[in-house]
Fold this sequence. Notes:
The complex is a heterotrimer, with 2 copies of chain A and 1 copy of chain C. By secondary structure, chain A is α+β, with helices and mostly antiparallel strands. Chain A has 10 helices and 7 strands. Chain C is built from 8 helices and 4 strands, in the order H-H-H-H-H-E-H-H-E-H-E-E. Chain C is rod-shaped.
Amino acid sequence: MTDAPEETGTLFEAPPLAEQERMVEAVLFASSEPVTIADLEARMPHGSDAAQAVELLQKRYEGRGVRVVRVGDAWAIRTAPDLGFLMQKETVETRKLSRAAIETLAIVAYHQPCTRAEIEEIRGVSVSRGTIDQLLEMEWIKLGRRRMTPGRPVTFVVTPEFLDHFGLENARDLPGLKELRAAGLLENRPPPGAIPLGEGSEDEVDEDQTELFEEE
Amino acid sequence: MTDAPEETGTLFEAPPLAEQERMVEAVLFASSEPVTIADLEARMPHGSDAAQAVELLQKRYEGRGVRVVRVGDAWAIRTAPDLGFLMQKETVETRKLSRAAIETLAIVAYHQPCTRAEIEEIRGVSVSRGTIDQLLEMEWIKLGRRRMTPGRPVTFVVTPEFLDHFGLENARDLPGLKELRAAGLLENRPPPGAIPLGEGSEDEVDEDQTELFEEE
Amino acid sequence: MNDNLFSEDPVSVADRLAAEALIVDVDGFEGPLDVLLTLSRTQKVDLRKISVLALAQQYLTFVEKARALRIELAADYLVMAAWLAFLKSRLLLPPDPDDEGPSGEELAAHLAFQLERLQAMRDAAARLMARDQLGRDFFRRGQGEDITRIRTVTYSATLLDLMQGYARIRTRDEFRPFVMDRDAVFTMEQALERMRPLIGFAGTWTDMETYLPDGWDADPVRRRSATAATFAASLELVKEGHMEMKQSETFAPIHLRKRTETRD
Lengths: 216, 216, 264
């Protein structure tokens, strides 16, 4: 074709209709909102007939997986309605449990049945309702029997799902502090002046723990 | 091709390939991120062959305003690069990368998996933490496996986002990779007289490279 | 050509300007290797055929000039200068047969390789950046709203996380000031303090055991102490006229309730 000077784009002929159709396709695809004919033409080379290109594109997509649809006075590409079911997909996202949740869970596991007040006492900070709710929702803890003390506080215990997730047969399989220390998970030196206590050899988890914590 | 009647789903035959193509089209159009074959098949009816459907779709869109492109082991629809000029409105201002960052990125891409020491060796200057952080933050590089050499340094590799951004099917498609390799410029050649870093360190590099670029 | 760029011979104004630009611009260099690469361009040859000796000389001149202009050079520029001076002597002097180290030629070849590799990476970087880029030359789908994902979030934690979490808490605990030797003793004073506010709610007969403090019912030693203290405190409260106590038979549970004013 004739080489027209660059600046005067108007001297160019409009691109062939097939090319205009490509342009409309790309713009409708990339745009975050439906695009009006006027907007299309403002983007396309001078002399383009966006309405006609859209019409061609619409025909091309007939029966395909996506369609060119009119939204008000603008145009957009949308999934064919019969394929909507493909878009609904359950994605499972794995996220790390928060530190507060882990600690709360650990306390319930080691001290069950355990009230919220006890969890707070052990953690030394208050436990947010959300943390407990999250663990309940995950079905890693559940409500145990109410404590028969004034106020009859609810207790929490771990669930079979919890044991399953962590590959434990029962909560007593949880390693004790001694083992934690042996595994290098606890590196602290013994607190100055700590007096070893309780040489009882109770098998009960609770007592076991007590013994382990106070000792050394 | 006998469908075991385990589940109700398997009792249905997979939809015809043309229909599968429509489905792949709908999903790829709908998703702004690349979708893996596995993800496609998880959405499609049992027995569907997403890979074949994608291939058909890719052919169908050849020369159109949008294209079906491969990104690592996933697929995406992207506008044709020659129509970029229409999309000024959609252009996202990318952060200007420093010369150090660009070079570091190229070194990781061509030498991956690549340790920080290797990047420094090639550039002859230390790599600032900010440079690596920026590339990590942009998700263009990520941590690879540790190198099995003394100190077990971490390595860096490029990500699917990197491939997507630069329109690469995979890391083997990097421009000029073959030539650079043939010219021996991707070798990790120790300086003469240098104390070898634990035997096998070179083999290791070689293996890793081979794995990344030739395997799959 | 530019071979005499830094020599003592009179140089053209243009050359001198170029040389000074190089020096003044030292901040713009990314380390000594970058300087060497820039200097090597003055040789206008393939990097494989570069004269490392000439390059070493150029670099040393560069460092000297920088010093003369009182430009502070970073240590690695000076290290490179020292190394190149060493390399230069190796290349110029006949090889010492007793010397075990690598020859000057080997060192020079490696330097040439490093320069070539750096240049190659620069070229590769330029080619990479010249590619069509997402969001600039080609685009993704603009409307993300089509795809509705039902997101289920699964939280994960490992046994290790759990144990570390627990160890963390207990580690904290061990530094808490504890009165260890009194740990298994619940005093009557404590029991009284505990029961006074509670007794107001005991309108009906309630087993005394429910008044045991939390955490004192598992360990027999602690339980015994708590029971005794609670019993003593209960007697005290009855004596004060705040409460009534009953036990249906020997060893049966002891029941407590608030004493109301209507009662006689």
